[in-house]
Design brief:
- The complex is a heterodimer of chains A (about 110) and B (about 120).
- Chain A has about 110 residues and is an all-beta fold.
- Chain A contains no helices and ten strands.
- Chain A has a five-stranded antiparallel sheet, with no helix packed on it. A five-stranded mixed sheet of chain A has the order 2-10-9-4-5, with no helix packed on it.
- Chain A is globular, with a radius of gyration of 13 Å.
- Chain B has about 120 residues and is an all-beta fold.
- Helix content of chain B is about 0%, strand content about 50%.
- The relative contact order of chain B is 0.34.
- The chains are: A mainly beta (about 110), B mainly beta (about 120).
- At the A-B interface, strand 4 and strand 5 of A face strand 5, strand 9 and strand 10 of B.
Chain lengths: ~110, ~120
């Protein structure tokens, strides 16, 4: 059974800092891994999807990396802004399109 | 241009009174999912439809049922809600198996309160 851990659980930074969110998973036999953003009381917004054959995926200020063999992924956020404040969730896909979610990292970016 | 729509956004029901949550999509995706997310916890998959094929997770209680009458709509039925079923219910879709990126797209969720 896939288990996903996200570290740190919470993070508070001043605006402009670069930051890294970590995700580890126990079963490396994944098809892809997706990073999501969740604002309080809202649904999930997909940020990036990395296929198992990829090492990195970039979208604007976001860069996600995947080391499948070691069961790790990181989400790098450059030049953080207050609007980035949200909970970030990672979810590896172990097959049949079913995702297993971590509990997320709650990010607060202060002006 | 909403792609995954959930109704209602907030639902209040009484203990034991059946409730139905609705999800519709304009993406023509072949897979639809229902997740349960309790406060400060990770979303947990309840079941999913791959086209018309229903796939129930092993630990999903029998109290939870689902219907998918057509490609666009999927319903979550809770037959006898208990206090422990109060949660955010998230619907998602993907176009799995079509060579696309398998990205899952989520709706805004329905917040269920059980009194």
């Amino acid at each position: 059974k896939q288990e996903v851990t996200q570290i740190p659980a919470a993070l508070s930074v001043p605006e402009g800092e670069n930051l890294v969110l970590n995700c580890s998973f126990t079963d490396s036999a994944i098809y892809n891994l997706q990073w999501f953003r969740q604002d309080p009381g809202k649904g999930l917004t997909s940020l990036l999807l990395i296929q198992s054959s990829q090492r990195e995926q970039t979208s604007g200020r976001l860069n996600a990396s995947l080391d499948k063999s070691s069961g790790r992924s990181t989400l790098y956020i450059a030049a953080s802004q207050p609007g980035d404040s949200a909970t970030y969730l990672c979810a590896p896909n172990s097959g049949y399109s079913t995702l297993t979610f971590g509990k997320g990292t709650m990010l607060l970016v202060s002006p | 241009d909403a792609m995954v729509i959930q109704n209602p956004r907030y639902q209040v029901t009484q203990f034991g009174k059946p409730v139905t949550l609705s999800c519709s999509q304009t993406l023509n995706h072949n897979v639809m999912y229902w997740y349960q997310q309790k406060s400060s916890q990770a979303p947990k998959l309840l079941f999913h439809y791959y086209d018309k094929d229903f796939n129930n997770e092993a630990d999903t209680p029998d109290n939870f049922q689902s219907r998918r009458p057509n490609t666009s709509f999927c319903f979550l039925d809770i037959r006898s809600p208990g206090l422990g079923d109060a949660a955010m219910y998230l619907c998602a879709t993907s176009s799995a198996g079509t060579g696309s990126a398998d990205t899952q797209y989520f709706g805004p969720g329905t917040r269920l309160t059980v009194l």
